[in-house]
Every structure is written in structure tokens, then in C-alpha cells.
Amino acid sequence: MAQITDENMYLDNSIHYIDHLKPQCEKCFGLCCVALYFSVQDGFPTDKSAGTPCPNLEADFRCMIHEKLGALGLKGCVAYECFGAGQQVSQVTFAGQNWRLKSASADLMFAVFLIMQQLHEMCWYLTEALSFKLASPICEEIRKALYETERITQLPPHSLREFNLSAHRTKIKVLLRNVSKLVRSEISRINKVTFNADKERKATADFFGRDLRKRDLRCADLRGACLIAANLEGVDLSGTDFIGADFRDANVRGANLSKSIFLTQSQINVAKGNSNTKLPLTLFHPKHWDAKDNTNE
To answer: Where is the signal peptide (predicted)?
Structure first.
């Protein structure tokens, strides 16, 4: 049987993401714990407004309950991913000047962080897109978009706050959609899967609590799909586009996500998997995925 492999999916045998697209909390001033709006209902430790420090944020900008987030059921904290925006804003945009010592710039710093997080997320997706051998026909377009987005991340604070993020995001969204169709069509051809560019998109994207174990979701377009508490146990999800999909409490135990596209660590963090769940090269199994925590739920 034909099968998509690392060798024919990627430009090389591994994907080397730029370090600044991975969070380095020790280089950040706890921006996600201050700039974000918190709601207990959304899985955060308290209700707080944007710009107010979380009570668990210590003087050295570390979280005093970080190692207990999963055990405490704080899924909002567990899921959040800044894609390295925290250290970029802290160490580059504001040159190491933290919001406590420079309170006059605090609101600007928080606003820029929210913008930077979205720009870095775009960089993550574009870098992944650039790694796909199957997307080589449009690699130059992807490369230019990545270069332009990275250039924007280097702008000074006031320029970042005034930047038309919506227009840029729309442009990147169109490009990533084209990448998705190209990659999914090639994977479907290699694996002999019937391909429809809008497979699953024509149907409802709400799979809340649904048992999807008998559905052929290979190469499906599940962008933005609601997969909350859906059962994907043991399902082959090769070539499936998950950009923006909601994985909260989705059962992915034993599922093959290794060749899925546009999947992020934050999505994996809120799903329920185990050691048999296969992930893309750039993602890792969360600590709370061990048998003790979620096999017998």
C-alpha cells in the first residue's frame, strides 16, 4: 500500500523550527499572565481583566503553580501557546525593559504582545508550510510571506500597534489554504485516498462529542472544526488540516497525527492522548498524557 512518509512529505527528514518560535519563559516577563483576560470558566485560575497580573505570578515572572496546572484542571493555562512572542517582546521589542520597572510603557507592551503572538503563530504555520516537499510548487510564495511576517515582528512598538494585522492575516490565510489543498491532494494521491478539496468542509464542522472512529478523515479539511470531546481514538489522520480546530477533551489515544498538517502544541495539550498517539516531529506528548492521568477517565 502506498504510504506518505517523512522522506516524501518533508524537504528533509526532520523539521527544524526556528528557536524563537518556541516559548522560552525564562526570557519573558510573564506577559501571558498579565496581558490576557482570564476567566475561571475558560480554565484559568481566576477571573481577571487584561493588563492585571495573575495572583500566581511571582516577582521573578515565573508561575508559582506551573507544575500543577494539569492537576488543577487549568486547561486555559495548559493550552495557551505564545509561539515565542513573549521573549521576542521582552528581549527584542522592549530591549529587556520589563513592565514593572517601566510602568508607563506597560499598556503598550501588553498590546504589542497580543499582536506579536498572532504574527509568530503565522510564522509557525508558514515555516511548517515551507517544510513540505509537497508544497514545493509555491515555496517561493511561502518564503516571501514568511520573510515579510518576520520583518514585521522587528518593527518598533508603536509601529506594531498601528500595523494592519487583519489585512496581513487575511493574506496569510489565503496562502495557507492554498498550501493545504496542494499538500492534501498530493497525500491523497500517494495514499490512494479519494480527494475533495473541501472534504468535510461541505458538511458541518461541529463534531462536538461525536464518535468519529469509523469516519475516513484522511486529507480532510477540518480547519476551525469543533472537535470538543470527539472520539478519534485510533483514527488515521494523515493529511488532515487542523488549523484552528478545537481539540478540548478530544480522545486521540492511539490516533495517527504524525502526518497531519497545521497542528500545534496548544491543540495537543488540551486533547486526551497516550503513548500510542503519533504526533508530528515538532510536537511532544504532554506530561499529563500518562496512563495514571487519563486512561480511565
So the answer is: none
